[in-house]
Amino acid sequence: MTKIILSTDKPELALRFRDYIRREYRRDLPLYQQQGHYLLALEEDDPQLNQLLNEAEQYRHTPFAEKYMQASWQDGQTYSLNGRFKALLPNLSQWRNLWSSIAAAPVTALIGLICVVVYLLSLSDYQTDVYLWAHFPQDSSQYSEIWRFFTHALVHLSLSHIVFNLTYWLVFGAMIERSCGSGKVLQLFLAAALISGITQNAFSGQAFFGLSGVVFAILGYVYVMSRVDPLRRFSLPSGFIYLLLTGIAVGFVGPLLNLQVGNAAHISGLLLGSAIAWLDGKRLAHKK
């Protein structure tokens, strides 16, 4: 005889609970579909039956708790979109919990807020003023205007541009700040804005804006740190590497599709963030 542990008409809820059990108990629960419902069940003589029934009862009360979301995140699963990349973007329930996490990452939040304010200003009559004030130095006559080496990263030219960049900045920037401190995320922002700006300027001139060079730096940082950090502070979904490869690939094919992509900024930011992570990992390993 079998005993139903969990029944729901939403497949993502059943799959999320199964991910959690897989992570905590190292076993896969069989999933059944019956008359529009998704069932997880076990044999009545299973030695873990009562324990898993208690787990299911807790899950029914708080299905969006962080421990359940984190289980799917680490497993790299996707349920409501095809492909592996949904796990790399926060869904609605993760956005509900995001702001409490951001409270522990004030530098990440502040830079994100500045980007939003600057974008709103660019939609107003101040658009030209914003662009002229924030762009990368045009020539040596503007090198003394030090802010220009960094402010280009705070300006975005479209809604999709800022949403994409801030999504990754808030998720992974906050992850770095909570794990390594505000100084580290500020270091990455300043270093990546400077180096990606200089690199992109060498290829395209000063006509570029956006946080994407910095975003690729933090993506490179968390990816390398997830492998070299002796403290094991970074846990990433299994599909994370595909995000990096796709971002670089889009940069190369973008011009063929009439898309203006700052690939030089992306690659230089990725390499810089990866190098800083490698050095941090070596330093921490030496201390141990």
UniProtKB/TrEMBL annotation:
Location (main, coarse): membrane
Protein source organism: Testudinibacter aquarius
The name this protein goes by in its record: GlpG protein
Phylogenetic lineage: Bacteria, Pseudomonadati, Pseudomonadota, Gammaproteobacteria, Pasteurellales
UniProt keyword annotation of Cell wall biogenesis/degradation present: no
Keyword Cell membrane part of the UniProt annotation: yes
Alphabetical GO biological process terms: proteolysis
Keywords, in A-Z order: Cell inner membrane, Cell membrane, Hydrolase, Membrane, Protease, Transmembrane, Transmembrane helix
Any one of the GO CC terms: membrane
Compartment annotation: Membrane
Domain Peptidase S54 rhomboid residue range list: 144-282
Membrane topology: Multi-pass membrane protein
Residues annotated as transmembrane: 98-121, 149-173, 185-203, 209-228, 240-257, 263-279
